[in-house]
Every structure is written in structure tokens, then in C-alpha cells.
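Predict fold of Multidrug resistance protein; 476 aa.
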Amino acid sequence: MARPLDPVSAPAAPASVWPLDSFALHIKRTLTLAFPVVLARAGMVGIFTADTIMVGHYGAGELAFLALGIAIQSVFLLMSIGLLQGTMILASQAYGASDFRAAGAAWRAGLYHAVLLGIVFGIICALGEPLLLAIGQSPELAAGGGGVSLAFGLSMPGLLIYICSSYFLESIQRPRVGMYIMAAANLLNIALNGFFIYGLAGWSEPMGAVGAAVATALTRWFFAAAILAYIFSMVWREGEDPFGLRVKLLRWWAEARRLGASTGRRLRAQGTGMAVMMALDAAAFQTLILMAGYLGEKELAAYHVVVNAMILVLMMAIGCSSATSVRVGNAIGRDDAPNMRRAGWVGIGLGACFVLPFALLALILPGGVAALYTSDPAVIEIARTTFLVAGIVLVVDGAVATTIGALRGAGDVWPTMIRFIGSFWLVGVPTGYVMAFEMGFGAPGLLMGLGSAIYIAFALLIFRFRKVAHMPLKRV
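Predicted 3D structure, encoded as C-alpha cells:
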């Protein structure tokens, strides 16, 4: 079995047995785990970024279709990702306690949930056009966005299978697998985008935004197959089966269902709060995107460009957040309170540092960044002003992401969710509406509302982690 990055190969010991590691050692261990996770998470958003850039140069109208299609799937996707984070919590704490069978059981239970959620939410995505019409979008935008949503929905099970499996591999200190798979997936997606978005003479007709969604759907099934192939090959490659993967194929799904009723209860207990938090967070984000749609096609396209760029940058902080969750969970599994606290604080600081250079870039060259996404002068001008707001928000947003990761690793779900979501719905969305419509700031005003929520959430969550870090440790 691969050598772990943290001292978790021995059974859990009393906290007094574990030495307090230096900040330098914590930074090194977090970066060692976070770097491939950051690249893997950035790779996932990189697929959407390539879609946005390639569709943006195809036409501003198609970019608006893509934004609405993504908005429909985002709420359901993030709800599913939140639930599947229970896999990370259970597997990382089990791995920290050297309970490898329990870590494997967490993955199989998560996989069962991933398939079922993917089917249900894929069907919902297929209803994108009537959903967009119901919330007041124009028939043209609803038809274009609905076609994009349908294509995305066809690949929802594959995406969730990959996400659940990557959480498991990260929890058992094998984060590089997802990094390599995502690198290949991005190259495949760009090639498929060229074929489906623009078409090839004599081979295919241009499909615009729908073509980008079809390319992404095919890419999702590719990386799902790749990560499953790696996990199931671990047994014969390493000659041992500590995670209990050696199950006959015909019995495997039945055992996964059984785990869905046992380990799955614990997974849902931890994941439900994260699912609610991420769903409501996504709903707040997408509500602001829908508001941008009411401002007009150009405002919607510009706001989508800025939000996409922010999410791409924040993948570094989110990757650090996942690494922080794993390291906090490992420390709790081995009953190591001092290093649990230090791992959390180091992760929070690194999350802010990761995004700082990009925040400065957004402040210094906002127009240049916007021009990477689109050649439409009106969209670039709106995005330029909006990027200035993003530069003020990004660093704190990175710290918020890693603070949530530290709290997630500790199993603190519902209190975190209430603080985070309350900030967005009670402050962010209303403020965004007032700034954009009542005060006339347009797309930049929507992001001002988002920024106000992020600053409030940061203050609330930092105080929460400080409290949780001094509570008695408890494995969930």
C-alpha cells in the first residue's frame, strides 16, 4: 500500500502521544496533498471554461444559452456533490484511524448514491426548457438553455461517479490520480468542442452552445470510466486489498446497496447538511445569474464570464479546502487535537494565498481578462467593471472555501450551513438586487451583493472554527 502523507499507518493513539508538528511541516503536507487536488478541481472547471471561451467566440447569444443551461444543472449538481462529501468525511476519518475497510465501505456507499442521484437529477435537467419558461425567461433563451441542460443531464451519473471516487482517493492519500485524469479530459473536451461547436465541413453542422454541452457530456463519461478502472485495478497492481475491493462482480452492486442502508445512513447524516448548503449556495448564485438575464443578453453574458473566471480561480482554494478536510479528518481519526487545529488554520491561510495573485490580476488588467472570453466589445466593457469587483472579493472567498473545508473535516455540518447560507440569502441576494436594479449598477451590482455575503460569511465561519477546534474530538 502507498506510504501515507500523514502518520496514520498505526492505530489511533491518545492525543498526548502525537507531537505538535511545526507550521512548516503542516504547510508542506497540506501543499503536497492540495497541489494535485487543486489541479484536478481546476481541471473540472477548466472544462466549463473551455466551453465558455469557445462558445463566447462563436456568439454572445450562444454564450447566454450556455449560461442558462449551466444554471439549471448547477443547483442539482452541487446538491449531489454536497451529499457525496459525506464519503470524504467518513473515508478520511476511517483512514486516519487505520480502519481501511470502513474507508472502502464509505466509497461503495457513496457510489451507490452517486448513480441514483445522477439518474434523478439527469431527468430534471432534461426538463430545462419548461423550467426556464416557468421562471420568466424568454422563449428563445428558454429553448437554447433547455437544449444545453438536456445534454448536460445525460452525463450527470458519470460526473457524480467520478466525484465520489475522487473524494475516496483523496481521503486515502492518492490525489494525483484525479489530476492526471482531468488533464487528459480537458484535452479531449477541447477537441470535441471544436467538432461539435463549430462543426467540420462535410462531417458535422455547427451546434454552438448545445455542441459544447454534448462534448462535455462525452468527456464526463470518459473520466468516470478512467477513475473506476484505476480503483478496481488497485488490488491486482498492489497485491493486497485493505479497502475490501475484491468482491465478485455479480455481488458488487448488491453489497453496495447493503452499504447504502448501513454506512449510507452515516454518509447521509454528514452529507445532507453539505448538500443543503451547496444547493442553497448554488441557488443564490443562479438567482443572481437569472437576474442578470433580466438585465439583458449582454449583461448576462458578461456576468457569466466573470463568475466562470472566479470559479476557475476558486478551484485552487476549493482544492486546498478538500486537502484541509482530509487532513483535519485524518487528525480526528487518530485523536490528535493539536495537529487538527493547526491543520485547519494552515489550510485557511493557504486558501487565501492561493487566489491572491489572481485577485491582483483582476484589479490590474480587468479588460484583458475579459477579452480572453469574448470578442464582443459591449460584453467586454461590462465584464471589465465587474472584474474590478471580483478582485476585491476573491481573497476572502478563498479563505471562506477553506474554512468550510476545515469545518467539514471536523464533521461540523449544520451550524456551518446555517451561517454560510444565511449570509447569502439574507444579505447577498437582496443586496445584489438593490445594487443592480434599484441603484442601476447592473452586472457589477450583482457581484457587489455576492461580495457582501462572502465577507459576512467569512467572519461567522472563522469564529465557528475557532470554537469547534477546541471541542472534544469525535469521529462521526
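The two ends are 25 Å apart (CA to CA).
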